Amino acid sequence: MNDKAAAPRRTAKLATPTSLGKDARRDISGALNALLADFFALYVKTKNFHWHVSGPHFRDYHLLLDEQADQLFATTDVIAERVRKVGGTTVRSIGHIGQLQRVLDNNAEYVTPLDMLAELRDDNAQLAQRLRETHGVCDDHGDVATASLIEIWIDEAERRTWFLFEASRAGEAPGR
Ligand SMILES: [Fe+2]
C-alpha cells in the first residue's frame, strides 16, 4: 500500500466513537485546537514574564504570574483530551502550536512590569472572547460537555484579567 492510500486508514484508527456528526467533530476539534495553541502560547508568555519581571513589586508579580501560568497549563491537557473525545486529533509539536496560535509572542529583551501586566490582561480578555465564540460552535452542534468546560475556562480567564487589571493599577499616581 502506498502512503496516500495508507493515510486515511491510519487517521481512521484515531476516530474515537462519538454520536456527534462529522461536521461537529471537524468544527469543534478545529476551534479547540486553536484555543489549545493559544493556551500554550499564553502559558509560555506568562512564564517568560514570571522569569523576567523586575522592580519593587517583584515578589507579588512573580508569584501572581506563576499562579496564572499553572492554571493555563492545567487547562491544556483537558482541552487536548476533549479534542480526542470528540474524535479529532490535536497538536503534536511546538511547531504545530506556532502555526495555530493567535496569541502573539513577546521576545523583547526587556519589558516593564506594567507593560507585562497590561499585555497579559489584554491577551486574557481576548482569550475569554475566543472561548465565548467556541462556546457558540459547541451550542450549534449540541456539544454540552465541551460548552460546560468552556464556561469554567471563561470564568478563569476573566479572573486572570481582573487580577492583572488590579495589579497594574499599583503604578497609578494617587488620586487618578
Ligand atoms: Fe518559577
Bound molecules: fe (ii) ion
Principal-axes geometry comes out as elongated
Overall pLDDT level = 92
How large is the count of helical segments? 6
The residue fraction in helices comes out at over 70%
Report the major sheet: none
- Write the element-wise H/E pattern from the N-terminal end onward: HHHHHH
In whole angstroms, the N-to-C terminal distance is 71 Å
* Poorly predicted ranges: none
Query: What's the total count of β strands?
Result: 0
Task: Give the percentage of residues in beta strands.
Answer: under 5%
Radius of gyration equals 19 Å
Helix/strand/pairing class, anyone? mainly alpha
What does this structure look like?
- The protein has 176 residues and is mainly α.
- The chain is built from 6 helices and no strands.
- The protein has helices spanning 3-12, 22-52, 58-85, 94-100, 113-141, 144-168.
- Helix 2 (22-52) runs antiparallel to helix 3, helix 2 runs antiparallel to helix 5 (113-141) and helix 3 (58-85) packs antiparallel against helix 6.
- It is elongated.
- The termini are far apart.
- Fe (ii) ion (FE2) binds at residues 50, 66.
Report a brief summary of the structure.
The protein is 74% helix and 0% strand. The chain is mainly alpha-helical. It is elongated, with a radius of gyration of 19 Å.
Throw out a few tags for this protein.
176 residues, mainly alpha, 6 helices, elongated, binds fe (ii) ion
